[in-house]
Amino acid sequence: MAQPAHSRPSALRRFLDGQSSAGLVLMAAAALALVVANSPLAPAYVATLSAYVGPLSVGHWINDGLMAVFFLLVGLEIKREALDGQLSTWSRRALPGFAALGGMVMPALIFLAFNRSAPAAGGWAIPAATDIAFALGVLSLLGSRVPASLRVFLAALAIIDDLGAVVIIALFYTAQISLPDLAGAAAVVAALVAMNRLGVRRLAPYLLLGLLLWLLVLRSGVHATLAGVILAFTIPLATSPGRPDDTSSPLHRLEHALHLPVGFLVVPIFGLANAGVPFLGLPAEAFAAPVTLGVGLGLLVGKLAGVLGASLLAIRLGLADFPAYAGRLQLAGTALLCGIGFTMSLFITLLAFPADPLLQTEAKIGILGGSLVAGLLGYLVLRVAPQDWPGTPSR
């Protein structure tokens, strides 16, 4: 049966192909980082990331500066989808919402089952994230074998997952607070909201105030990348009050401008800077340490159990609909792909263990191992799954 044509596909569907390609580039960047970190170039790799450019090291410019642009794009996507996209109504957000909740809770519980005491317990949120670029990159390799409804479901789930990660970072991974800088940041946010209310539709004023907001948030002790999300929520989606959504709006224009540089430059650079785990010389126990197992099994088992279990429960209770033209095995394969937690998981690792290189390394091993196995299994399940949907005979 042919899938019905949609007269007005959502913006989320339109950027899926670009996200898939970006995922493949990110895979290459992660592989390159691993090769370099375990080669004679390793000292130069570490020295480059540790070198200071102005007040921050290269690594900090990447993780606090470039990643603020990534979070800006995440915020724009969350706002657009919540107001005029796949998350704009209860029926659209129900299934990915329940799936995202289950996919955050179960991995965290599995991690804590292995790591109940500090400081390791502080990494509970590491396996709770899904990497949309990586996951869609794997889906792109399957072509038409995966129905569009599952691609949209996965992207919407990852966006809700990103929102959850943003909240987690704000609540649980914030250092000591500088009240004067935080007050200054609040004043800048008030100015941004006022510009939105007054109908300012030029992007330049928002971006200039956004730079000031980033600096104040960086100095305040709250992680600087959250400035990107806050800025995104203040940028207008409409060109005028009478036109609630227009492709020429400031939000659409900025989102369109950021997709390529974020997907093909910012995120790969982040992966190149943070995926370089030096395996040579590591003690053997690092590969079976509680943090390694908690992260790896959290991504592999926790995501599968949480996403699939929450989805089937919500469908069974009548709270959500099954994705169109998809079968249960395909939903299970998609849940496995949610165990690819690369970008956000690495980011939370840096926040959870800022002063413990060994715990960072163990978490990265778990991220790489869990994501790799989850991605391979998800691909294989989707590859062999019958192109079916609920209510039709199995083939």
From TrEMBL:
GO biological process terms, alphabetically, are: regulation of pH
Main localization of the protein?
membrane
Tell me where on the tree of life, at the top rank, the source sits.
Bacteria
Transmembrane region(s):
21-46, 58-76, 97-115, 121-142, 154-176, 182-200, 212-238, 258-281, 293-319, 331-353, 365-385
Origin species: Teichococcus deserti
What the entry lists under InterPro entries is as follows: Na/H_antiporter_dom_sf, NhaA
Subcellular locations according to the entry:
Cell inner membrane; Cell membrane
GO CC annotation terms, alphabetical:
plasma membrane
Keywords, in A-Z order: Antiport, Cell membrane, Ion transport, Membrane, Sodium, Sodium transport, Transmembrane, Transmembrane helix, Transport
List the protein's name.
Na(+)/H(+) antiporter NhaA
